[in-house]
């Protein structure tokens, strides 16, 4: 098992770009992937991309949706258990998370990456939806936002629940779309307050923006 404290969030661009090309080719051919609003993602500074979570397809969709900078994903630490898994997860710059433990080390590692001006993707709902509907967000994302000072780009992924919902083995060739919204600034978050009592409000604001993208309002 890896140690998140010693883990360096850094992508090998050759492996990262090769991986995203393979994923994008698959998503374009099998799912006719459409990407909307990627130009809204800032080219500089720490950016947290927050999207809904319905399927194992979601990380590849987010990863190929924006090609300006590498996107670092938070992923369960068991994916590092195999030699190839450990090698590949490190090369594409993933952040290991021990699920169900309130992994403070992983949160600190994520905050550090954002402070360094990197792009991180996470799913505020925590787990994949059981029915395809949006779920409530976990307050941990509010902690990350406040401590890192990052901006948040909301994103809505449409179609992955139909293509590969939780508990299924096969991936159906359904059309997929990812839509990125306007960045949520630190000023907007600070207007909701600060500290522990504001974390849930920050999370709720993000889910509101994701819902707006789902409804075509942003």
Walk me through what this model shows.
- This protein is an alpha/beta fold and 218 residues long.
- The chain has helices at 13-31, 58-65, 83-91, 104-115, 140-148, 160-163, 186-190, 196-214; strands at 34-36, 47-51, 71-76, 95-97, 119-122, 151-158, 177-180.
- Helices cover 39% and strands 15% of the residues.
- The chain has a seven-stranded mixed sheet with strand order 1-7-6-2-5-3-4, with helices on both faces.
- α1 (13-31) crosses α2, α4 (104-115) runs parallel beside α5 and α5 (140-148) crosses α8.
- It is globular, with a radius of gyration of 16 Å.
Beta-strand content: 15-25%
Element string (H = helix, E = strand): HEEHEHEHEHEHEHH
Mean pLDDT: 92
Percent helix among the residues?
25-40%
Supply Rg. Answer: 16 Å
**Major sheet details:** 7 strands, mixed
- End-to-end CA span: 42 Å
- In spatial order, strands of the major sheet run 1-7-6-2-5-3-4
Q: Give the count of helical stretches.
A: 8
Cα shape: globular
Structural class: alpha/beta
Low-confidence stretches: none
Number of E-state strands? 7
């Amino acid at each position: 098992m890896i140690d998140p404290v010693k883990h360096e969030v850094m992508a090998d661009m050759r492996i990262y770009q090769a991986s995203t090309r393979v994923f994008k080719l698959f998503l374009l051919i099998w799912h006719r992937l459409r990407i909307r609003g990627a130009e809204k993602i800032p080219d500089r500074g720490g950016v947290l991309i927050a999207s809904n979570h319905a399927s194992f397809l979601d990380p590849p969709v987010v990863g190929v949706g924006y090609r300006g900078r590498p996107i670092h994903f938070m992923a369960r630490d068991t994916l590092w258990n195999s030699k190839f898994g450990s090698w590949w997860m490190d090369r594409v710059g993933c952040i290991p998370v021990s699920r169900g433990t309130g992994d403070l080390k992983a949160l600190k590692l994520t905050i550090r990456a954002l402070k360094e001006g990197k792009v991180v993707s996470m799913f505020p709902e925590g787990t994949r939806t059981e029915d395809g509907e949006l779920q409530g967000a976990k307050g941990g994302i509010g902690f990350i936002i406040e401590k890192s000072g990052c901006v948040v780009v909301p994103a809505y992924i449409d179609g992955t629940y139909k293509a590969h919902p939780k508990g299924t083995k096969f991936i159906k060739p359904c059309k997929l779309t990812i839509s990125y919204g306007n960045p949520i600034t630190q000023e907007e978050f600070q207007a909701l307050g600060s500290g522990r009592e504001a974390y849930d409000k920050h999370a709720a604001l993000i889910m509101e923006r994701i819902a707006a993208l789902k409804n075509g309002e942003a």
